[in-house]
Amino acid sequence: MTNIRNLSFFAICLAFVVIALGAWTRLVDAGLGCPDWPGCYGFIVFPTSEMDIVVAESRFPTFPYDINKAIPEVVHRYFAATLGLVAIIMVYLSFKQNENKSIRRWSIGLLAFICCQGLFGYLTVSLKLLPIIVTGHLFGGFTTLILFFYIFLMSGNFKSLEVMRIPNLKGIAALAFIILAIQIFLGVWTSTNYASLACADFPTCQGTYFPEMDFKNGFNMAQEVGPNYLYGLLDNPARVAIHYSHRVTAILVTIVFVILMSKLWFSPAAPLASTLGVLLLTQISLGIINVVYVLPLYIAIAHNLIAATLLATIFMVNYLAWKK
Hints:
Blueprint: H1 2-27, H2 50-59, H3 67-97, H4 101-126, H5 131-155, H6 159-162, H7 170-192, H8 215-218, H9 236-264, H10 270-292, H11 297-322
């Protein structure tokens, strides 16, 4: 299973790159940088010459061409497609090596999921950034990472992990994973609805701890997109409700993680306690910096990457807790 282990490790690294590129695309408002799919204005890659740009704009007159938005979109698509190619190779190897049927099943499931991710990529463009589709697509990137990570753990003979078993922490480990997944979903929903700067101060929001909020519209999963959803259509109270929910859930995540870390300190998996602590502190700091310094691009991308690393780490904790 060495080939699958090495390939899955490469895929994990590539998945982090795809997550970063997806965040970059979103943060520079390039979700419609190419108004068609899988090409870009009818080209395999983004048009560069003056003649090609004229042709591109004649094909999509309602979407003026902006190379600064086309580049992030195209780069993200090609890296994501490469991840799909890796998944295909993994399925092939799982049949060729024929040693672990569980890995084969998970590899096939992963490939099917990545195909669904491609479909969501298409729908993101064709449905003009419909929030629930964009959220599902971005959240799917985190799920893809965890699926590759799980296959990596299954395909390796990691003897050091055998002595780190923590079956007595199943409940708190599962709770930590679930609440972190909810928090990441809320973070993605915040970005999708352009609510990251709805509260421009910290720790208060618009100068108060209880700002005006509209949860009904903020969490309406069937919003209208108008001509498109670029820059969002929600009013400020709805965006504040989304942003504020993300902040409150961050407090819950912190509480649950502190409880989990206190238990991990006195278990065979003690090194994971300090890892979780450093990652959690870094993530909270990045979130505060995003608000105070008005969403700096590279800080916001780092916020996504640390979220992915936290998710992988808490998945590792669950793997050690639930592995038979």
